[in-house]
Amino acid sequence: MFRCFLAGRPTKNRAKIAQKNMEYDTIVIGAGLAGLTAANARAARGERVLLLAKGHGACQWASGCVDLLDAPEHPLAAIAQLAAKHPLHPYARVGPAALHGGLKLLQSACSKMGYPLVGSPTQTLRLPTALGALRPTSLVPLTMVAGEARQLAAGGPLLIAGFRALRDFFPPLIAANLRTQGFPATSCYLTMPNSERQRDFTPMNLAHLFERPAFRENVAQQLRAHVRQGGYTRIGLPAVLGLHHAVTVVQALQQTSNALIFEIPTPPTSIPGMRLAHALEQAARQAGVHIQLGSWVVRGSGSQKRLETIYSAAAAREQRHHAQHWVLATGGILGGGIRREPQGALRETALGLPVHSPSQANEWFHPHLFAPGGHPIFQAGIATDQHLRPLDAAGQIMYTNVMIVGSALAHCDPLREGCREGIAVATGYKES
Amino acid sequence: MNHPPPLNQGLDQCIKCNICTSACPVAAVSDRFPGPKYVGPQAQRFRREGQPVPDDSVDYCSGCRVCNEVCPTGVPIAQLNARARAQIVAERGVPLRNWLIARTDMIGRLSAGPQAPLVNFVLRLAPTRWLAHYILGIHRHAPLPLARRHTFRAWVAERRVQGTGNREQGTGNREQGTENREQGTENREQRTENREQGTENREQGTEKSVLSSPSRLTPPTSTPPTSTPPTSTPPTFSPHASSPHASSPHASPIVYFHGCATQAYEPHVGQAALAVLEHHGYEVLVPPQNCCGLPLISNGDFVAARRAHLTNVRHLLAYVRQGIPVVGTSTSCTLTLKEEAPEILGLHSADVQLLAAHTYDLFEFLRLLAEAGQLRRDFRPMARQLPYHIPCQYRAHRIGQPVVDVLSLIPGLQLSLSPAACCGIAGTYGIKREKYAIAMAVGQPLFNFIRQSGSDLALCDSETCRWQISHATGVATKHPIELLAEAYNLSYYQS
Ligand code: SF4
Ligand code: SF4
Question: Which residues pair with A306 in a beta bridge?
């Protein structure tokens, strides 16, 4: 609707002296899944896009799977029910078409990198975590799918393997917890193959090492020996099996070891999460999106409910940015997009938008850490109209050319509801 | 309300997400360096003034600032690391090798000039390199630039005597003036456009005032301009009153900060910069200046670095007080004047801040001109595809990619952008014996990208990065300003 309003702006004249590279149709603030999806979607629609962010987004902390909704069977049907019950929920705002569009965009970006995401929004998959619990999700990378609960239940004995040098990944713990759930799991530690590295095996460093054929061949031979001895049909490994060529690495390991290999997400930094971010960044760059990290948006200015300019902190002075449209994808409380001011009020960090919170400060937290209803504070977010335009406390539209996407949105608790990625891609994909 | 945290509070912002460690190019290739989170916000908790430094692995930080760029909470990790290294130096003293290579202006002075051919010859002899390698600790394969017989400043002085430059005569560029007046009548549409822009520009504060600062220097003596021939294509800037090319009696002055490399090794970069600025009607001033001090900062010699910076402040203060901008072609020098020196060295006087506020990377400045509709568009088309690497130190300015923004205005020119974080050399880091291999490994993705481009020329703003790229790939390198000067058809090479 405000698209046509904009069409009347003097963009044509402007184009004459147009700064080919300095004028943007849309500036997206935030480089998480929502921001990256928005940048890609808009570039695909022919817009000139700048993606501006403080740093890398929360993809790098997440599992690298796509959670749509924590539902026992059919996430899509559950989403429809949720939307009918909660008309303010972001899923209700954007509708199923945006979700499908966003998922397609993400899947195609990942496929182009040779890293397909498999699964369907109509089915809930359950995959083991680094604690050995089963976590519901919907789309998973090809490198994880052999760990899906139904497959584990059908198959023979299962091995969970890791490296002592990799901190925060304990195969015995994972195997023990899987056993209590009825899966025949054993665990082992592998010997770290020789390389120039003696210490500091972060997930990232291991991912680089696994891209070397000699390194992974060594690991594959160790796995093969374990398979011969224990007759394992499946092996779970930490999700560090390569950054850019994970599918190749997994295939090579499978071939030599004679077992199906699946990755188990590690605590941050998450390599599978980075792969998603890389795939979307790559696709965005190819579509002509400019990406500028390390830039904190400090304020914006505009008139008549239009945001015209924002300023980002830079060396010695602020940098000014202009655009016709803006997408705010700065994340929720965990992503750093919402902060508590010293006086106690919650604020959105980039533009200082008011935050809708269902509770007073003294009710932010439930007395029980794992309360099934979650902590009220995590419902906090920016309230919007049905076009995702931000509203003030009185329910008035603040900016007609700003869209709020992802975890910054109010009326949902993405982590507890298990819909973080679904909300991100669906709202990010939505047209303004 | 959303400002990144100040240096001394930065470490409290760390949420231990390790995003920095995953992005650090040094931690990726060497286990001598445990990564930014560990040596930065984590180890900082154990560093106290007057107590022995607990761990010196921080010395393997190259200072590339990639960690700062990706950290989602704004921890100034690279600055913490720089200070930590200085604490080690304060405790143990500067090793001779680091003392030497940090004094880039002294080395430049000793090598450039009539003795340059001899110096170049001797420094390239295998025994010299061997001695430097084993005795000093400068890696025997490290790239060394060629010192020039004619330094940049010598060329500027010569030009002044000959009266060919803008230095003394200003730009009474009459031809250009008339050209502009003609344009003014032709282009009414544009003028209205610019009026709109003008209102926008008012918000811009310093940016605007710099672009429009009228000359407040003493009126220049008049000699007819000979610097740049009028070009065939009419420029597309508007005859805006504030434009430096407008028919004002004399041109806006601008200070050029050349840095050590342009002075001793690459005078042509400075010549190209002068040609482009003069093409825009600026009167380019090259006042006395010394090393920006970055090599001293990155080698932990804060005492000398403070001296270097304050001397520059003294030299340049008179200009910035008049609102004259300082532009530089070396992204590391300009970053140091803008931010590194004040922040890391803890220099916050009004004078230091004034210089910082007036310092621009040259392409940042040209992009501001373009945004204000004042960048000339009399480019000749260049049907070329060139790889471009934005130096890590340029990204640390946090202003996007001004070179890409400006050069993509040249018809036909295609830039392919390097995906690499860092070339590895990081100033003096990659020439050190113990770090050479790390630096080459860090640069590998960049070298692959440049080799795969198949181009015989690559663009990069930073001098040491250019030397590293050419050293590793054999591909010739240029500063983007050289390409821009070519696109304007300006002759800038020493004849
Ligand atoms: S990226 Fe920033 S917040 Fe995360 S560990 Fe590094 S310094 Fe801490
Ligand atoms: S400045 Fe560069 S080398 Fe140093 S810690 Fe940060 S990313 Fe690593």
Answer: A303
The whole-angstrom separation of Cα A43 and Cα B461 is: 28
Q: What is the mean pLDDT of chain A?
A: 90
* DSSP reduced 3-state for B329: coil
CATH topology of domain B8-93: Fumarate Reductase Iron-sulfur Protein; Chain B, domain 2 (1.10.1060)
Residue B51 reports pLDDT greater than 90: no
Q: What pLDDT score does A346 carry?
A: 85
Q: Which of A197, A199, A204 sits opposite B21 (nearest CB)?
A: A204
Where along chain B do its domains lie?
Answer: 8-93, 377-487
Which CATH number applies to B377-487: 3.30.2420, 3.40.630, 2.60.40, 3.40.50? 3.40.50
Is CATH 3.50.50.60 what the domain over A23-112+274-429 is classified as, yes or no?
Answer: yes
Q: In this complex, which of A298, A315, A320 lies closest to B396 when CB atoms are compared?
A: A315
User: Which pLDDT tens digit goes with each residue over B57-76?
Assistant: 999 999 999 999 999 999 99
Partner B contacted by A269 (CB < 8 A): yes
Written as six digits, the tokens of A40 are 């890609």
pLDDT of amino acid B250: 58
Q: Is A30 left (phi over 0), alpha (psi -120 to 50) or beta?
A: left
Q: Does A13 touch chain B (CB under 8 A)?
A: yes
For the structural domain made of A145-264, what CATH number should be given? 3.40.50.10660
Contact residues, B window 10-39, toward A, CB-based 8 Å cutoff: 17-19, 21-23, 27-28, 31, 34-35
User: Shortest CB distance from B1 goes to which of A58, A200, A347?
Assistant: A347
The CA distance from A123 to B166, in Å, is 73
Pocket test for ligand 2, best of B33, B62, B83 (most atoms within 8 A of CB): B62
Q: Which of residues 163-202 of A touch B (CB under 8 A)?
A: 196-200, 202
Residues B376/B235, Cβ–Cβ less than 8 Å? yes
**What are the residue ranges spanned by the domains of chain A?**
23-112+274-429, 145-264
ipTM above 0.90, yes or no: no
Q: Which residues pair with B353 in a beta bridge?
A: none
Confidence at residue B54, expressed as pLDDT on a 0 to 100 scale: 77
Contacts of B38 (CB under 8 A, 6+ apart): B21, B57
Q: In this structure, how many other beta carbons lie within 10 angstroms of the beta carbon of residue A344?
A: 9
Give the number of beta-carbon pairs within 8 Å between A and B: 151
B357/A293 touch (CB, cutoff 8 Å), yes or no: no
Span of A157-171, A218-232, A314-328, B245-259 with lowest mean pLDDT? B245-259
Q: Residue B36 CA: which ligand 2 atom is closest?
A: 5
Mean pLDDT of B211-216: 39
**B43 ligand 1 Cβ < 6 A:** no
Same topology, domains A23-112+274-429 and A145-264? Answer is no
For residue A317, the 8-state DSSP code is S
DSSP string, A56-103: --GGGGS-SSB-----SS-HHHHHHHHHHH-TTSHHHHHHHHHHHHHH
The total of other beta-carbon atoms located within 10 Å of residue A193's CB is 17
Is A154 near chain B, with CB under 8 Å? no
Model-wide pTM > 0.80: yes
pLDDT of B176 > 60? The answer is no
Q: Say how far apart CA A82 and CA A65 lie, in whole Å.
A: 21
Inspect the interface and report whether the beta carbons of A205 and B28 lie closer than 8 Å: yes
Task: Please indicate if any CB of chain B lies within 8 Å of the CB of A274.
Answer: yes
Taking all residues of chain B, what is their mean pLDDT, rounded to a whole number? 82
Segment A358-385, tens digit of pLDDT = 767 677 777 887 777 777 777 889 999 9
Q: Which token pair is A141? A: 């990378």
Instruction: Using a CB–CB cutoff of 8 Å, tell me whether A315 touches chain B.
Output: yes
pLDDT, greater one: A292 or B163? A292
